[in-house]
Structure formats: structure tokens, C-alpha cells
Amino acid sequence: xxxxxxxxxxxxxxxxxxxxxxxxxxxxxxxxxxxxxxxxxxxxxxxxxxxxxxxxxxxxxxxxxxxxxxxxxxxxxxxxxxxxxxxxxxxxxxxxxxxxxxxxxxxxxxxxxxxxxxxxxxxxxxxxxxxxxxxxxxxxxxxxxxxxxxxxxxxxxxxxxxxxxxxxxxxxxxxxxxxxxxxxxxxxxxxxxxxxxxxxxxxxxxxxxxxxxx
Length: 214
Fold this sequence. Notes:
The protein has helices spanning 2-40, 108-122, 148-154, 169-173, 201-211; strands at residues 53-55, 77-81, 87-90, 97-103, 130-136, 161-163, 181-185, 191-196. By secondary structure, the chain is α/β, with parallel strands linked by helices. The protein folds into two domains: 2-41; 47-211, Glutaredoxin, CATH 3.40.30.10. The longest helix is centred in the first third of the chain and has 39 residues, at 2-40.
């Protein structure tokens, strides 16, 4: 009887070891899958900065729109990507009229301006001739409202976004002097006006009417 109990005990121990090993194996597989699958949904898959190619001469810096040395000169082209890696280009002289807007996620004036522009778009009042492209620049993970991709997504931003480089090459190429920063460029690639700061929609429409008379 003692020997039979020993055999039964041994069989139970063996089965228990196999159960434990099976559970452990399942946990390892689950951990690996969670790492792999979890990584695919990580918001870090979106790039907040990127590589910028500047084609042409950079525009000079100015903080005086009334005496802007860039007005009448050719704006440089900017080639890069959006947050999801989609190619985005600003190519002055391609026959389109551009409004290029430089935004910083931590800037309260940008946070106030973006909803105005979204409302303007959703109202249907944006001129058909205008090609609007935003440049997300001055990205800093230790500053408020980061990351900019989530901010602009929350705001329902409707236009293409070009991500600037870590060294703000796109902003430097356009002589950015404040936030938000606007540049209007005609179909020949000529800079018509640049200015920094918040602007109400009626005033922006007046600037457009003056820059692009029909």
C-alpha cells in the first residue's frame, strides 16, 4: 500500500510539474505577444521631427513686416515628411499660392490660432486658390502640449503638416521670428508677406485679399 501511495504521489507530482511548465510557457508566449503587439500601437511610431531638405536660399530674419527684406525674393522649397511618414513638400514656384504656417505645440498663441483656422476651413470660406501647409517646429518633449501630432489631431487640423528637424532647419530657412508665423507666397514662388503672432480670421482674409487680388 505504501508503495502504491508512493507511485500515486509520484504521478501527481509529475502531472503538477507539467502543468506548472505549461503555465510558465504560456506566460512567456503572452509576454512576447504583448511586447510585439503593444509596440505596433505605440504612439512613438509617429515621428515628431524629421529630416528636412532645403532647396534654395534661406530667407533673412526680420521682426518688421513693414520693412521685410524677403518680400519680392524667391522662397526656398522644403521637402520632408508628416507625422506618419507621408512625404510633404512646399515647392514655391509650382504654380500654387501658399500660406505656410509655422507652429510650436507649447506656444499659447499657436494653441489659440489653430482653432480659428480650423473653424475657417470648416466654414468653407478658405479660398480655393490657397494651398495651406503647416510646419511643426521647435518640438520639445519637456514642454507643454507634447506631442504635436496628438495636439493637431485633437484640433482636427485639416491641412498637410511638415515636421521640422531637431535643429529647426525649416523654420530657419523661412526666417521664423515668432509663433505662429505666416508666410504668403505667390504662384511664381515670390514672398509677398511674412508676419508673426495671432490674427483673427477677418484680418487674415484682408491680408489674403491684399496679397492675392483677384
